[in-house]
Specification:
By secondary structure, the chain is of the alpha/beta class. It has twelve helices and 19 strands. It has one domain: TIM Barrel, CATH 3.20.20. Strands 1, 2, 3, 4, 5, 16, 17, 18 and 19 form a nine-stranded mixed beta sheet that branches. It has an eight-stranded parallel beta sheet with strand order 6-9-10-11-12-13-14-15. Strands 7-8 form a two-stranded antiparallel ribbon. A hairpin with a 2-residue loop joins strand 7 and strand 8. Helix 4 packs across helix 7 and helix 7 runs parallel beside helix 8. The chain is globular and about 70 Å long. Belongs to the metallo-dependent hydrolases superfamily. Hydantoinase/dihydropyrimidinase family.
């Protein structure tokens, strides 16, 4: 069905202007003044911003971890994402050593099938580099459109890969046109510190943070950057939390290396003291890397402002407090790592970033959507408002004030990490490929509507010039 969005203020990563949008066949067909189209439904967006739909590059839905499974699956997780103004997610597909990559990808397709209400894609975890893995990777890119590989430098004896695996993944990614992502913490030293803490009788949630100091994130980030330089490859550092890691990324970029950094809303507004909440409530804030001392927050905001960090992911990885986080009572290492962030990512960036003058409105769009689309082979199909792009749109009220709460959120999890936080701004309606998923703050989408997205190789366009190099 054709639609015209009238009277809104369109905001992209580069421009802000008042215009109408004509939507046909799921695409943006025309942008102009006083548009008319026979048979088109007219949506009045007066007083609202119209943003490209948010893209969350970092989610873990329906993921087994720590002896349990994340509470939000592809249905509840994508519904919550849509309410928050996100229209595309890229979820992490876990692999198992010794098993074909294809088997893991099929498992993740089955998790999403018939459930996702918005479009989605996958990153692929690399835990080992064998001849079989190297033989499969080109097929993963060509057949599945998975053009980003994640290597864990932490979670010893669970996910952690050694430096040789990281280096060989970087070399392979350079040859194949993929982007390597790292969880950058020194897993070996963390393993020692956690065992020592438990031996000393230190079992409370706060020791999760104290055994993963920022120096270990900075060290691993710097090591990954150096290996990237040696391989002549490209690197994306996920969930950057601290000044030490920002410094290493900035150093690499100043040397001209192809290195990018992501942070998350929890690191911008919450701090380490939350892990000291009484009655084991600190467990709600256990994720990795951990929350840092408050002074790191302004370092992260400044890094987003000056371009040292470029994107915001949610690292959505939700576990109930009751029955799941409680698995770690008496042993902080058994608390399932992760938190519920997918719904509030965009609004927190707008409220704490734009409204408080830390970033501009156009930077906001770039950080939560456009840059992510460019880095992960989705641009300009996704991530912008332009003729020919998918009509993934957010009609956003920039002035409404509200309080974040588990009582009103749409995630399946039983708490909200930002409980009680007062913010300004909220998505009113959200469209995916021209169809309402959320309309006037009511869910009108359909599980199974979301489509799997095959992504272009790193640094190439996706819409009309598939093989043309793109300057990111």
């Amino acid at each position: 069905m054709k639609k015209i969005i009238k009277n809104g203020t369109i905001v992209t990563a580069t421009d802000t202007y008042e215009a109408d949008l004509l939507i046909k066949d799921g695409k943006i067909a025309m942008i102009g003044q006083h548009l008319e189209e026979k048979g088109a439904e007219v949506i009045d967006a007066k007083g609202y911003y119209v943003f490209p739909g948010g893209i969350d590059p970092h989610t873990h839905l329906d993921m087994p971890f720590g002896g349990t499974v994340t509470k939000d699956d592809f249905e509840s997780g994508t519904i919550a994402a849509a309410f928050g103004g996100t229209t595309t997610i890229i979820d992490f597909c876990l692999t198992n050593k010794g098993e074909p990559l294809k088997k893991a990808i099929e498992t993740w397709h089955n998790k999403a099938k018939g459930k996702a209400v918005i479009d989605y894609s996958f990153h692929l975890m690399i835990s080992e580099i064998t001849d079989e893995v190297l033989e499969e990777l080109p097929k993963v890119i060509e057949e599945e459109g998975i053009t980003s590989f994640k290597v864990f430098m932490a979670y010893k004896n669970v996910f952690q890969a050694d430096d040789g695996t990281l280096y060989r993944t970087l070399v392979a990614a350079k040859e194949l046109g993929a982007l390597v992502m790292v969880h950058a913490e020194n897993g070996d030293v963390i393993d020692y510190l956690t065992k020592k803490a438990l031996a000393d009788g230190n079992t409370d949630p706060i020791y999760h943070a104290l055994t993963r100091p920022p120096e270990l994130e900075g060290e691993a980030t710097g090591r990954a950057c150096q290996l990237t330089e040696l391989a002549g490859s490209q690197l994306y550092v996920v969930h950057v939390t601290c000044a030490q890691a920002v410094e290493k990324i900035a150093e690499a970029r100043n040397k001209g290396l192809d290195v990018w950094g992501e942070t998350c809303p929890q690191y911008l507004v919450l701090d380490q003291s939350y892990l000291e909440k009484p009655d084991f409530e600190g467990a709600k804030y256990v994720w990795s890397p951990p929350l840092r001392e408050k002074w790191h927050q302004e370092v992260l905001w400044n890094a987003l402002k000056n371009g040292q960090l470029q994107t915001l992911g949610s690292d959505q990885c939700s576990f109930d407090f009751k029955g799941q986080k409680e698995l770690g009572r008496g042993d902080f290492t058994k608390i399932p790592n992760g938190g519920p962030m997918i719904e509030d990512r965009v609004s927190i960036l707008f409220s704490e970033g734009v409204k408080k003058g830390r970033i501009t409105l156009n930077q906001f769009v770039d950080i939560m959507s456009t840059r992510i689309a460019k880095l992960f082979g989705l641009f300009p199909k996704k991530g912008t408002i332009a003729v020919g792009s998918d009509a993934d749109l957010v009609i956003f009220d920039p002035n409404i004030e509200r309080v974040i709460s588990a009582e009103t959120h749409h995630m399946a999890v039983d708490y909200n990490a930002f409980e009680g936080m007062k913010i300004t701004g909220e998505p009113v309606s959200v469209l995916s490929r021209g169809e309402f998923v959320v309309r006037d703050k009511q869910f009108v989408g359909k599980p199974g509507y979301g489509q799997y997205l095959k992504r272009a190789k790193y640094g190439t366009l996706t819409l009309s010039k598939q093989d043309e190099k793109l300057t990111i």
